[in-house]
Specification:
The chain is of the alpha/beta class. It is built from 24 helices and 21 strands. Helix 1 crosses helix 9, helix 3 packs parallel to helix 9 and helix 21 packs across helix 22.
Length: 676
């Protein structure tokens, strides 16, 4: 007589009958939820896109079975089953799919973005693979807190081709994070067979990254439970690090509802349906004379879901008055501090001091980025911090998407990450995590997600750094709702704005000018903080308003001194925060001077100056005595040759000429639109 030793058999011996019944109940709940969602979508009750996981119930339920409320999952666009398996209520989920106010995310997320961070559900995600670096952040938070929690990052086989898969698994391996990367391998990346997408399987990839690997029959929930229980226990006990799980399964419906499915045949679908995970467990339970309980569960679930659908259908849509709700979390009130007048402090040291103060004051703060630890940052701004705060100043691989995703996930998990992108030019490499994750997560979760994170980066032109290391891209970031973008011009503001950014409950991007790092200015008090979203008048005047930020504030001040010799009294405004824009301070000045000149290093078209000019015409038209002037870099990439770069950058003479045009407008000969 032989004894069955398969993982499923082990699970059957380990789990009680009640537990196996509960596994069945969870899978059947997912199945019936998805079936009703399909019908509701067909009947136009659900708008937008809908991606169903019918056939994949065992992976969701089995993977989440050993998880506690403190553990975290990240999901995919096919994430309903993961959410239900982690304990999310089906009634609010139906309402969310319908876009109702009673939805899980108040109708702001929809099918692809259901989340509840309070339950460790960090979200389904409409971007393939985007949840993986967020899982790295959640795993980082667990490591820093030493709380024993585990993260499960669900992804499909198609996500393996994404760069964030590589970055995330590699960083998790380097930091030895408590993460299970759980692949629901259903054989198709949208419409393409997996065999057409990859030349290396997950086993080979796991070996390459130096992480664990396990295969499992994803349609056998008992096998999945057995594997996941062992892995979760090992990770909690420190017996292993990150693991890739390859679970073979199949989606019965197409990639999306309405998919004609021309890429696979009926025989293939029928073969997988004969391996239905719910039927497999149900037959086993009936074989043990538990059929009555199984049939009762089916009826109970049907009745419960029918009731949930009716309630969701009758629920109200969001109040139109709340259309702008939850874009930003309420900011703490910070009073404008006294301007320091004594001492001499370099801007680079002001930044170091701000990071040091926040690391001292709040153990939720950590710093991460390329060479910020042992190397102390490429400009030496974090030198010595890794030794002073062990484990909280962390070097990363050159993986910008993983760096930003780590900040998103860690912030959602209750930490206050400060991450660095070495050059502003590199935001294009990780723009999804900034634009689609950090900026939108609070809004898409109906305010349930907290995103207190800071992204530090720097820029400058004028030292022949070339077109890929000289860009001023603040307007691109300022255009994204949900982000706050600050650009300090003095050491005191660099200290105060960075401290306020770290204290803020929203994602804040702090853009420093590297050519100002050596600049000296009065030293702020240790409790110095500068309010976000508020400009400051650096030089009062009555004849013309000059508006700028970052290094060009100093150029404007120098030009204002030159103008004073000619009897022109220029007021200089330092925006400090580019977004949200403090136009009230600009408008107040314009009401006094009646002339406006905006100066910035970025190229002119579609820039910050364009926004200020539009607002000036819209809100301050009757105060304007002349057209708004804009002075900016030429509309081309930054040249490398020193002589061309200096020609490309706006000069003092050009600023002064713009003021002259504003002071003496010639309606018969206006300045040409393409002057720069």
């Amino acid at each position: 007589m032989t004894t069955e030793t398969s993982p499923a058999a082990t699970a059957r011996r380990t789990l009680t009958e009640d537990q196996q019944i509960e596994l069945y109940r969870r899978m059947q709940t997912i199945r019936q939820f998805e079936q009703r969602a399909s019908t509701l979508y067909r009947d136009s009750k659900i708008p937008g896109f809908l991606h169903l996981s019918i056939g994949q119930e065992a992976t969701a339920v089995g993977a989440c079975w050993p998880l506690s409320d403190s553990d975290v999952i990240t999901s995919t666009h096919r994430g309903h089953g993961h959410c239900i398996a982690k304990g999310l209520e089906v009634g609010p989920m139906f309402a969310e799919l319908m876009g109702k106010e009673t939805g899980t995310c108040k109708g702001r997320g929809g099918s692809m973005h259901i989340a509840d961070p309070r339950r460790g559900i960090f979200g389904a995600n409409g971007i393939v693979g985007a949840g993986l670096p967020i899982a790295v952040g959640a795993g980082t938070a667990a490591t820093l807190r030493r709380d024993g929690s585990v993260v499960v990052a669900f992804f499909g086989d198609g996500a393996v081709a994404q760069g964030v898969f590589h970055e995330s698994v590699n960083l998790a391996a380097v930091w030895d994070l408590p993460i299970i990367f759980f692949c629901e391998n259903n054989g198709y990346a949208e419409f393409s067979p997996a065999s057409d997408q990859h030349r290396a399987d997950l086993r080979a990839r796991a070996a390459g990254y130096g992480v664990g690997y396990a295969e499992v029959d994803g349609n056998n929930v008992l096998a999945v439970v057995d594997l996941q229980t062992r892995l979760v226990d090992d990770i909690r006990n420190g017996a292993c690090g990150p693991v890739i799980v390859d679970a073979s399964t199949y989606r019965w419906h197409g990639h999306y509802e309405g998919d004609p499915q021309k890429y696979r045949d009926a025989d293939e679908i029928a073969e997988w349906q004969r391996r239905d995970p719910i039927t497999l467990l149900g037959d086993q339970l009936r074989h043990r004379e538990l059929g009555i309980r199984v049939d009762t569960i089916d009826a109970e679930i049907a009745e419960s879901l029918d009731k949930a659908v009716v309630e969701a259908t009758n629920a109200p849509y969001p109040d139109p008055a709340t259309v702008l709700a939850d874009v930003y979390a309420p900011r703490p009130t910070i009073a404008e501090p006294l301007r320091p007048a004594v001492g001499q402090l370099k801007m680079m040291h002001a930044i170091t001091n701000a990071l040091t103060r926040e690391l001292e004051d709040d153990d939720r703060v950590f710093v991460a980025g390329i060479d910020v630890g042992a190397g102390g940052n490429v400009f030496g701004l974090t030198r010595g911090l890794a030794e002073r705060f062990p484990g909280r100043v962390r070097d990363t691989p050159i993986s910008e998407s993983a760096i930003i995703g780590t900040a998103v996930g860690a912030a959602m998990a209750g930490m206050k990450p400060v991450v660095e992108i070495m050059y502003l030019d590199f935001i294009g490499v990780c723009l999804d995590q900034i634009m689609n994750q950090a900026a939108k997560m609070r809004f898409m979760t109906g305010g349930n997600a907290s995103l207190p994170l800071v992204i530090r980066t720097q820029f400058a032109a004028g030292k022949s750094s070339g077109s890929q290391h000289s860009q001023s891209l603040e307007a691109l970031l300022a255009h994204i709702p949900g982000l706050t973008v600050v650009m300090p011009s003095t050491p005191a503001d660099a200290y105060g704005l960075l401290r306020s950014a770290i204290a803020d409950p929203n994602p804040v991007i702090v853009i420093e000018n590297r050519l100002l790092y050596g600049m000296k200015g009065p030293e702020p008090a240790t409790d110095h903080r500068v309010p976000l979203g508020r400009a400051i008048v650096r030089r009062p005047g009555s004849d013309v308003t000059l508006v700028s930020y970052s290094s060009y504030v100093h150029d404007c001040l120098a030009v204002a001194d030159r103008l004073a010799d000619r009897g022109v009294d220029a007021e200089v405004i330092d925006l400090r925060t580019v977004s949200p824009l403090d136009f009230e301070t600009v408008l107040t000045s314009l009401q006094k001077t009646n002339r406006l000149v905006v100066v910035h290093q970025a190229t002119r078209d579609f820039g910050v100056g364009a926004e200020i000019a539009a607002r000036a015409v819209s809100e301050g038209f009757w105060h304007l005595d002349a057209p708004v002037e804009r002075v900016a870099a030429m509309q081309s990439p930054a040249p490398y040759a020193p002589n061309l770069e200096q020609l490309w950058l706006p000069s003092h003479d050009e600023i002064e000429a713009a003021v002259e045009r504003a002071m003496n407008p010639d309606p018969l000969n206006p300045a040409p639109v393409a002057a720069r």
